[in-house]
Write a structure and sequence with these properties.
The structure holds two protein chains of two kinds. Chain A is mainly α. Chain A has helices at residues 23-27, 32-66, 69-73, 89-120, 124-139, 142-153, 174-198, 202-209, 215-226, 228-244, 247-253, 266-272, 278-285, 294-320, and strands at residues 164-165, 168-169. Chain A has one domain (80-325): MetI-like fold, CATH 1.10.3720. Chain A is built from 14 helices and two strands; from the N terminus they run ααααααββαααααααα. A two-stranded antiparallel sheet of chain A has the order 1-2. In chain A, β1 and β2 form a beta hairpin. The two termini of chain A are 45 Å apart. Chain B is α/β, with parallel strands linked by helices. Chain B has one domain (48-290): Rossmann fold, CATH 3.40.50.300. Chain B has eleven helices and ten strands. The chains are: A mainly alpha, B alpha/beta. Chain A: InterPro entries: MetI-like, MetI-like_sf.
């Protein structure tokens, strides 16, 4: 039985440390249980790869079949046939608008929280509480944020941010959706920036203090530039989460596929009004949805998937560049 | 406040209590006759800092125990001693970097040109007493910006490049790096070699025009050749600034130091001219340490 065989691979000179053998050489001499474990790991790994690849490939094929340039420049419309229902111009713009607004909140806030947690951390009780709060946010399902958002933005005091009819605050708008979506992105920004800051050795900070710089200066001029890859990663992952979120959009942005402004002020009225994003467009056009135009859903899903994949590639590139601190 | 419960201090088993009789010269340590970087007597020395009855503790643990010594411009002072003897703590206390450690407490008085450092703003003090660390740690920016960072007011980006060029070049010159980098000052500092990075850190520390330069084992991460370059540099610098260097390397201390302070378990065991401390130490513990008896 080779189960307990000693490492039998030829090790040339006895004086040198044992040479690294290739995985194939060594696994043959492993114990049976280890080999079963290895086979299990490979099976699962390949299995997941196949599932993922199947989803991506299927969406690519379907998307490429149904995508037309015209879809990008026409607004959705009510209708019964493919030719009547228009494209996804409004949802595409909506996705961009909502992502920009949510990141405008989540990025500075997350950056500030991460810097405070990593560099100051005082008072420590508050820092610990903030830490667990951020972790809790990361674990909260977005539908819960959505529900909370509907309750919050229906308050009279927040009437400015959505449509109001006869004193009844509608509570659904780009503002409401972006505010809640920022909570989805916040933990990702905080975690990544913090990790980047903590990877910088302490003596780099001290080198800056030791030439008479304050903590704030050190953070701005030395630490954040050094942690830039992590900052970019955090921001991009945050954007990825935001553009992929559906629950908050459906509950808080409303069910209108087109921009539906509230009021007369040019830009503000659009943001106060309801609209859609690619996710809610897919949701509405899925076979189970109200609009039920699966080909449009495939095309929009393809665009959404491409955006997320591109973001992931960008994250990889950003992370690989310039991790120069030990 | 004095420490309420001074921790027990372990002492070496000494053979006799009387001041040690020391084995002379080569028998004690073979490198005493080795070539030295510094030649001749030290130039006229001016006292810049004075450490008076300094004690520092981390929580209940005493790291530096009532140490007093002067720091003079025109001399290189080397702090030697085994690991954990408090030399780095002493060095860091000189520009109040110890305050960054939450548990650290300090007693005693350190003066800079007669002024108690405790009364100075830490940022102002640290511009006058700058420090170079064990690991070369240039900031992730260009060679130029690394030095200009020190010259500019806190986080501001002013004055602009052109105005600062002279000062940056002179700091790089004093650190002996200018000739190697003058072709491309916008080169990323992290792509320099280890020895160049450390000289850039020295240039950075010199840019503020400090009165005292603290060096915490500046050569321990470097190869012998870079070490030699930096040692030459340190000896040259002693006329412009007071230099204090912490080193584990006795040969290095002997090569470059004018005065040597031997610390052991937080105490200053012996302080004196390098020739005396290495050649004929007064204390038994010093004799044992410099001859490789322990540490």
């Amino acid at each position: 039985m080779s189960a307990a065989a000693p490492p039998a691979a030829p090790v040339p000179p006895p004086t040198e440390p044992a040479q690294r053998r290739s995985a194939r050489d060594s696994s043959a001499s492993w114990r049976l249980s280890d080999r079963i474990g290895l086979a299990f790991a490979w099976t699962l790994g390949i299995g997941f790869l196949i599932v993922t690849a199947a989803i991506v490939l299927y969406m690519m094929v379907q998307g490429l079949r149904f995508i037309r340039p015209a879809l990008f420049v026409t607004s959705p419309a009510a209708g019964f046939s493919e030719s009547e229902t228009g494209g996804f111009l409004d949802p595409l713009l909506g996705t961009i608008v909502v992502a920009a607004m949510a990141m405008a909140i989540a990025f500075p806030l997350g950056l500030a929280i991460a810097v405070w947690l990593s560099e100051y951390g005082r008072p420590s009780a508050l820092a610990r509480a903030t830490e667990s709060t951020v972790e809790m946010l990361a674990g909260t399902p977005s539908i819960v944020f959505a529900l909370f958002g509907t309750l919050l933005f229906e308050q009279g005091a927040l009437a400015l941010f959505s449509r109001t009819n006869d004193g009844v605050v509608y509570g659904r708008s780009f503002f409401a959706a972006a505010a809640m979506l920022s909570l989805v992105a916040l933990p990702l920004v905080v975690a990544n920036v913090r990790e980047g800051l903590q990877a910088i050795p302490g003596h780099v900070r001290e080198a800056s203090y030791a030439v008479g710089k304050t903590k704030l200066t050190t953070t701005r001029r030395v630490l954040l530039p050094a942690a830039r890859p992590s900052v970019v990663t955090g921001a991009m992952l945050g954007v990825g989460r935001i553009i992929g979120d559906t629950a908050i959009i459906v509950l808080l942005l409303g069910a209108t596929l087109r921009f539906n402004p509230a009021g007369d002020v040019p830009l503000l009225s659009e943001l106060r009004g309801t609209g859609s994003t690619l996710t809610s467009f897919v949701y509405a056009n899925a076979p189970t949805g109200e609009a039920n135009q699966p080909t449009k859903a495939y095309a929009a899903g393809f665009v959404l998937l491409s955006m997320v994949l591109l973001l992931n590639v960008a994250v990889d590139v950003a992370a690989r560049r310039g991790r120069r601190w030990r | 406040m004095r420490f309420l419960h001074p921790p027990p201090v372990r002492r070496l088993p000494l053979t006799g209590e009387q001041p040690a009789t020391v084995v002379g010269g080569e028998a004690a340590n073979g490198f005493v006759s080795a070539p030295r970087r510094r030649v001749g007597a030290s130039p006229l020395a001016v006292e810049r800092m004075n450490v008076d009855q300094l004690s520092i503790a981390y929580g209940p643990k005493l790291a530096v125990d009532t140490v007093s010594l002067p720091i003079r411009q025109g001399e290189v002072l080397a702090l030697i001693g085994p690991s954990g003897c408090g030399k780095t703590t002493l060095l860091r206390s000189l520009n109040r970097l110890t305050e960054l450690t939450k548990t650290a407490s300090m007693k005693g008085r350190i003066t800079l040109d007669g002024v108690d450092t405790a009364t100075l703003e830490p940022t102002a003090l640290r511009r006058r007493v700058t420090m170079v660390f064990q690991q070369p740690n240039p900031f992730p920016m260009s060679v130029f910006d690394n030095v200009a960072y020190v010259l500019r007011e806190q986080a501001s980006r002013r004055p602009k490049k052109r105005v600062l060029h002279g000062a940056v070049a002179s700091a790089l010159e004093r650190a002996g790096l200018y000739d190697e980098v003058k072709g491309d000052l916008s080169h990323p500092a992290l792509r320099l070699s280890g020895g160049q990075q450390q000289r850039l850190c020295i240039a950075r520390a010199l840019a503020a025009d400090p009165e005292v330069l603290l060096l915490d084992e500046p050569c321990s991460a470097l190869d012998p050749q870079s070490t030699q370059v930096i040692e030459d540099l340190i000896v040259q610098l002693r006329e412009q600034v007071a230099v204090v260097i912490v080193t584990h390397n006795l040969q290095q201390a002997y090569r470059i130091a004018d005065y040597v302070a031997f610390m052991y378990l937080g105490e200053l065991v012996e302080y004196g001219p390098a020739d005396q401390v290495f050649g004929s130490p007064r204390e038994q513990r010093t004799a044992e340490y410099v001859s490789g008896g322990f540490g």
